[in-house]
Amino acid sequence: MEERAPFVSHSPSTESIHILLVEDNPGDVRLIEEAFKETVTETRFHTVTDGYPALERLRDHQQDPSLPTIDLVLLDLNLPRLGGFDVLERLEDDPDLSAPPVLVLTSSETIDDISKSYDLSANAYLTKPSSPDEFAELGHAIEAFWFEQAELPPLST
Fold it and tell me: Can you tell which superkingdom this protein's organism belongs to (predicted)?
């Protein structure tokens, strides 16, 4: 297996965090966006409804560096056309495609889905909460770990 291209990041303390949200359920999109409004970190969402535009958005930055860099991907598994596992497989198989941390955020709690996600190099597997308050807690947890505690690779060109 070849290594992926390096992840490109910027300092969360000085700029907005750009999140690629890959989610086809409008209700979940709204809950996720609302959850991050509760966080201290300014977040900007780039929302797509299936895997094809998600991969396209990740490739677009390589072709046009003036586009905002995606800092984090929130990926649902159950999507129309190109699903979450297919996205993870393509990210893993394409060494020229740089991807930020990918957090699977799905309703599935099956061991097979969890194992397969990690086998395909997902950085975390999170089960969708069942209430707006739990979504807010999830937003704070993601902020605390991925934006404040985790050491991400430095900015590269």
Answer: Archaea
Q: What is the CATH number of the domain that holds 91?
A: 3.40.50.2300
Q: For residue 42, give both structure tokens.
A: 């300014």
Q: Percent of the chain scored above 70 by pLDDT?
A: 87
Let me know if residue 46 belongs to a domain. yes
Specify if 127 maps to a domain. yes
15-25: buried (b, 16+ CB within 10 Å) or exposed (e) per residue? eebbbbbbbbe
CA neighbours within 13 Å on the CB side: how many for 19? 24
Report the distance separating Cα 91 and Cα 22, nearest Å: 14
Residues 50, 81 contacting (CB under 8 angstroms) = yes
Asked if 8 and 69 count as a contact pair (C-beta separation under 8 A), the reply is yes
Lookup: tokens for 134: 């739990």
- Taking CA atoms, 36 is separated from 33, 78, 140, in Å, by 5, 22, 7
Q: How many domains does the chain have?
A: 1
Q: What is the pLDDT of residue 152?
A: 67
pTM for the full predicted model: 0.85
